[in-house]
Amino acid sequence: MSSNKSAVVVKGLRKRYEGRYALDGFDLTVPQATVSALLGPNGAGKTTAVRILATLLRFDAGTATVAGFDVARQPAQVRARIGLVGQHAAVDEILSGQQNLVMFGRLFHLSARQAARRAADLLEQFDLADTGDRPLATYSGGMRRRLDLAASMILAPTVLFLDEPTVGLDPRGRSEVWQSIRDLVTFGTSVLLTTQYLDEADQLANHIDIIDTGKVVAGGTPSQLKAQLGGDRIEFIVHHRFQVGRAAAAVSRLGVAEPAVDLDTRQVSLRVSDKATALSAAVRALDEAAISFDDLTLRRPTLDEVFLHLTGGRAEQEATA
Ligand SMILES: Nc1ncnc2c1ncn2[C@@H]1O[C@H](COP(=O)(O)OP(=O)(O)O)[C@@H](O)[C@H]1O
Ligand SMILES: [Mg+2]
User: Fold this and answer.
1) What is the pLDDT of residue 313?
2) Which of 80, 124, 242, 265 measures 20 to 30 Å from 227, CA to CA?
3) Is the CB of 145 under 6 A from ligand 1?
């Protein structure tokens, strides 16, 4: 792979299961030595995309290259350059962490001595050196997932696919895995990570693509995505409930759309185009109308809002259904 090539390039990918498209015009580019996140709700097509890129699943149309090789025509070359951590790990409970890694090394045709050396290096890198001789059955969720990551790195892959790597982990396990993923990139690995968690994408990814019903509906850096939602908003809490409506009317001419009002929390939220002047104009308008208020702030939209906006709130409806 030459230095100016991307780790993954996908164009117009389509995959049909029994008459329904799981991927329908899916495009993706993962630059080298970065973490890209594919962020989307359950059923969006994330696992299908990863399995196709890892040569485990055929597709119906489109093109895909990984590490510069064509996924359909050069699957062996692709396979030699990738690692995959899926939702189900292929590790042995009774063996120790160290023994598991040696076993993987042997599977990949390393000599006994090479496999032992690689296992020791990886246990060190993934902060498992102290527990390497304990059986896997005694590992915490975060330790196991780090062992999965270590196993996927035996052959130092160029491109690593991580399909929802922190599902089912407690907060501590998640942050341990996040740190290991960050470390991988400093070794030059390109990572494509799928996730349903906005904070995970925000924490790890240089670039986020949002996938919904089989296609990418938006992409960019976390801050670019936030900017796409129409910029900044002013929010404040009206002191007296009976003044909430009047407060919204008083500031409405400053916004690009009608203010959003929440009577329960007494919050008024207003999208503005000119954040330099909007804050002081809002204070003036409220003072002139003799409305007292608290916590007047200017803030950027959150990634959650971007996500809900782009996926039409479906993710949230499913989660609460
Ligand atoms: N083997 C399969 N047979 C039929 N439909 C499938 C199969 N695998 C996935 N699907 C469907 O394809 C869509 C995408 O699934 P998937 O790629 O697993 O999404 P995600 O990983 O984002 O949750 C879903 O509607 C799912 O039900
Ligand atoms: Mg999945």
Assistant:
1) 57
2) 265
3) no
